[in-house]
Specification:
This protein is mostly helical and about 55 residues long. It is built from 2 helices and no strands. The two termini are about 25 Å apart. About 0% of the residues are buried.
């Protein structure tokens, strides 16, 4: 099985908001990394459906 190429990203965000976000992820049984990966994938798929991306 071929390994997928991955890109590491980092960003700055408001500490109070991120702390609340992490608590939400714990309550939902998710991880911030998984949540952001899902969001990015959904945005790209929607843009492809709308013809904005190939």
């Amino acid at each position: 099985m071929e390994a997928k190429k991955r890109r590491q990203v980092s960003f700055n965000t408001d500490d109070e908001i991120y702390t609340a976000y992490k608590k939400l992820m714990v309550l939902e049984g998710r991880t911030p990394t998984g949540d952001l990966n899902r969001y990015i994938r959904q945005r790209v798929e929607k843009a492809r459906q709308e013809g904005l991306l190939q």
